[in-house]
From TrEMBL:
Belongs to the peptidase M1 family. It holds the Pfam family Peptidase_M1_N. Its EC number is 3.4.11.2. InterPro entries: Aminopeptidase_N-like_N, Aminopeptidase_N-like_N_sf, Peptidase_M1, Peptidase_M1_aminopeptidases, Peptidase_M1_dom, Peptidase_M4/M1_CTD_sf. Residues 1-18 form the signal peptide. Residues 282-478 form the Peptidase M1 membrane alanine aminopeptidase domain. SUPFAM superfamilies: Leukotriene A4 hydrolase N-terminal domain, Metalloproteases ('zincins'), catalytic domain. Keywords: Aminopeptidase, Hydrolase, Metal-binding, Metalloprotease, Protease, Signal, Zinc. This is Aminopeptidase N. Residues 72-243 form the Aminopeptidase N-like N-terminal domain. CDD domains: M1_APN_like. It comes from Dactylosporangium fulvum. It catalyses: Release of an N-terminal amino acid, Xaa-|-Yaa- from a peptide, amide or arylamide. Xaa is preferably Ala, but may be most amino acids including Pro (slow action). When a terminal hydrophobic residue is followed by a prolyl residue, the two may be released as an intact Xaa-Pro dipeptide.
Amino acid sequence: MRRSWLPVVLSAALLAAACTDSNPKPEAADSAAPGVSSSPAGPDYSVWSAGRSTPVADPLYPNYGNPNVDVLHYGLDLAWQPETKTLTGTATLQLRAAADLTEVKLDFSKAYVLDGVTLNGVAATGTVAETKLTVPGTVAKNAFATLVVKYHGTPTTVPMPSHRSDAEPLGLTVTKDGGLWTMQEPYGAATWYPVNDQPSDKALYDIAVTVPDGWSAIANGTLKSQDGNTFKYTATAPVASYLTTLAVGRYKKEAATGPHGIPLTYWYRQGPDDKALPYLRKSPQYLEWLEKHFGPYPFDSAGVLMVPSASGMETQQMITMGLPDYGNDANFKAGFDADLLHEYAHQWFGDAVTPTNWNDLWLNEGWATYAQHLYTNERDKVTAKQWEDWARGVDTRLRKNIGPPGKPKADSFAESNVYMCPALMLHQIHRQIGDAAFFAMATDWAQKNRDTTQDRASFIAFVNQHTGKDFTSLINTWLDSPTTPK
């Protein structure tokens, strides 16, 4: 998620006012215990094995997600009618029972009417209460099942649990002209499809969206086809639910090519987004810079989707960006450039490697913020010493006002302490081991843990093993101290 440091930025010349246990790689879906069978319908669930996860209950937002369900794949067939503001959907979920189930319980908005539910091809009675969809049915531990939910309704958002100046309602937002867009971290995917809305359950996605003539539909993944007014997207790498995106509107589309042939797509609204276009077109340069420092881009396509938001979000393969008020043209040029680099950095840190739970949001934002500042320091000719002196002042204020980054508050999601404070912690490791060792470690963290979820314990173990030094105390101190460590 974007966190602009403007108007507090570094100039080129000076500092001035102007940041549980780890999951292994997914096992094959056919590795269930002997005697455990799939659903009576008998599909080959191994084709979705890359979506296998080890879900855990989230300690920060325990009312969202279900650790007893592991969704392997979401097939979403959606249609949007702007005139009536009606979203019609059929969600087909292939899932694994992580524990013996007598019901399948997922997150879903009560704004929708259920038009039909089946579990393994048998009609079921689903109910939606508060934020939960409940479908009775027995599924043995490690067995597989297919859940199909048909529904329709008008999307409604939920409040974001944060005091950020750019905080907006979470989930699928309906615009005045009948368009759609969404940003949904830490939860909010449930405002448009039934979902296990927690970061530890990553899954594969196929999304088809039908829209009226002259409208476009954009989702995360790669656009595989457009059949008439139906846009079809596929994500072949597992995605955490908060990293999915959807937008419908009268968009313009521009295609480009990134490093070693990566297909890039920019979706924008002619007029409102014109000043962002020069930076969208810099995407190949952003990716080249990031690949130089952190290894190959981890997905098979990339792009940017512009929406009428005050923020930005690292939605997987298709970044969702708004145009906040930066104050003046100079701040816009510096700030939007840095923010877009930040969201691209998340494709390595947060998307390819995702935190197991929301206590470890610092793993996303610390890395992306440090990458952002390495980039802007290089751009603006700011020395590491100048940056650290400035960053320590910011860190001190954040710890005093918000608290340490390793102990986030549920009502203060994604506030500045989980950005700058862990970025400065990474800088301490960087200083001690030097450029070559640090960027080798960063590359291996992103590449070797690709498509998994990780946490503080696994990060500490990785750093210690990779460097041959014990950074346990340094990392824990920087994450937990109420004051800036010396």
